Fold this protein.
Amino acid sequence: MENKQRPVKNPYFAGIILGIVLFAAFALTQGGLGASGALSRINIAITKVFAPEHVDHVSTFAAAAAGDKSALDHASIFLLIGTFVGGMASAFFNKRLKVEVFKGSRITKPQRLFFALLGGIIMGYGARFARGCTSGQALSGGAVLSLGSWAFMFSVFIGGYAVAYFVRRLWLD
Amino acid sequence: MLPIEILSELGKIGGYAVFLLIGIGFGVALELAGFGDSRRLAAQFYFKDMTVLKTMFTGIIVAAILIFLSAAIGILDFSQIIVNKTFLWPGIVGGLIMGVGFIVGGYCPGTSVVAASSFKIDGLTFLVGAIIGTGLFGETVPFFDEFWNSSYTERLLVSDWLGWSIGATVFAIVIMALVMFYGAEKVEEFFKFKGSGKKVSWKITKKAYKIGAAALFTMALLVWIIGQPDLDRKWEIMESKYGPQLDSKEVVISPLEYVKTYNDASLRLVTLDLRSPKAFNEFKIKGSKNANLENLRDAEYVKHLASLPANGLVILIADDYAVAEQAWKYLKVQNVINVYIMENGLKDYNELFADKTIHGEEIDLASPPAELLHLFPEDAYISKIKIVTKKRAGGLCG
């Protein structure tokens, strides 16, 4: 059975779709897109199951879920679920729905997963530090000309390019 | 008029459903761009595949053009759009950290969601890591709380920083993006397209690119030429919404209601006295501030009025009703929520209370006591003040 993956769309075309979705987000909800806020809320919700009093003590956690408040009762969670569903649907229709590990050719799968986890931790940490992730800060803030978001955007690229050479084994042939 | 505040418009369930739909659009856009593939994302940092830059900046300029063009023609009120607060240095440091996480892990939070949803194990692993990372931050932020809250500006735009108009800034950003796109194509050509081993569909002709670029250029130019509405044009746009409140005088209150409000400790009253500084110095109500219309046109001046706490209200005093009305309009179009006008300024106020005494003592009209109200029958005035609270949506990153 040869189920050929469809090639990805032209990047500018995808960008236009992205821009229209972003505009719709602003027009309908006043705010843009985002993902990291929801991830943080998931973390808080999990923490709350195991250590509810701890959530009340950490100030940034308490803001989202002190007392009876549920960290998951928030619009960002639904945006995240939507992103998940949309990604899955698009992958399905384009025949890219497949269990696999994307990695550079010079590392093993366990190595790749280790670095994915590590990168994720660093990213999650940085996203809270910067009060938003690539979509929440750079994309949304960039479109509404927030100065902080533009400064942030360039520093993400600088951070990435600065380290890229040292981790080239992860990605290059 | 846009933007709609969907959660108060449709309630929680309907509102969340809209967020879900927007999320689906977001997920589809990211997946279509190929952002579910860490190799493609990482290739950006080796100049092999500039998709990240191209798609991201196309998204930004398309959204910016749509937002500011609709604001220019008056179908969207930009002041109601949430602009990410600027915490300059924490943002820069956080961005650097994220850049490292990006190249080590191969995703950013949004793209890892899409990768995970299409069964990419590395995406799922990254996502789990990111969730852990947000928690670690919450645990450690108390150690550098001060820095994390430093260099803060509520709503600082690139255009403010440059000292340009918003239109000119949008135009400049679009030009910059188009130049970057041209550069990105050249860079890819130079480093060859072999990063993720996939080809891009839709071999778009050079002509199509030129038409696209020309369309963006033209729309950005329009944003610049039309310009963002000033306060007078904003009033024209919003007149149908707020005009009736003025016509029916439902925002014009009696001096008695002013005295009641003045003594209501549960309210945060700001009294703006629009009379001349000379008249103000001769007599003023204690706590009131002298202001003129020029002040109220100044966004910087109005800012604190627009961000009063939920129990805040502004009452305007002017000898000339036309001045009070103009001031009211200026404040309304700048989103000051509870604004009222004292009927006939201080004329009625002084006349009404002129010869009143409490327990035989003269009354200090500069700080009218609540007892004053007992001298009048309860139905002496119609109570008009209704405090409206507007929940400020916090954005999705919080």
Summary: Chain B is about 55% helix and 5% strand. Strands of chain B lie at 86-87, 152-153, 252-253, 268-273, 289-290, 312-317, 339-342, 357-358, 361-362.
